[in-house]
Amino acid sequence: MRLAFEVTDHFLVPKHVLLSKKDIEEFTAKTGIKTEELPLIPESDPAIKPLKAEAGDIVKIIRFSRTAGKSIYYRRVV
Questions:
Q1: For residue 6, is it within any domain?
Q2: Could you report the per-residue pLDDT of 16-60, keeping only the tens digit for each?
Q3: Is the pLDDT of residue 11 over 70?
Q4: Which of 12, 16, 35, 63 is deepest in the core (most CB within 10 A)?
Q5: Whose CA is closest to 59, among 20, 4, 11, 28?
Q6: 2 is a domain residue
């Protein structure tokens, strides 16, 4: 019997947040970065599956490090 494992509960998986349309507009206005210029993350990535993200959505990834503190990354879902 195989037990279910929720990958997002693992301590090595950073927090993933699906951005709303308003958040995307604010991000692009603030940074001047077009969504097409963002690094890609596949829809099939286990960390974003629970978000039900679709192609074109933007995911904010929040990573924590003892040396760097908090780092935020953005990825476009393909």
A1: no
A2: 999 999 999 999 999 999 999 999 999 999 999 999 999 999 999
A3: yes
A4: 16
A5: 20
A6: no
Q: Is residue 5 part of a domain?
A: no
Amino acid identity, position 19: L
Torsion of CA 55, 36, 28, 18, to 10 degrees: 20
* Whole-angstrom distance, CA of residue 44 vs CA of residue 42: 5
Can you give the CATH number for the domain in which 52 is found? 3.90.940.20
The answer to whether the beta carbons of residues 20 and 51 sit under 8 Å apart is no
Please state the pTM of the whole predicted model: 0.86
How many distinct structural domains can be found in the chain? Answer: 1
35/76 Cα distance (integer angstroms): 7
* Structural domain harbouring 27: 11-77
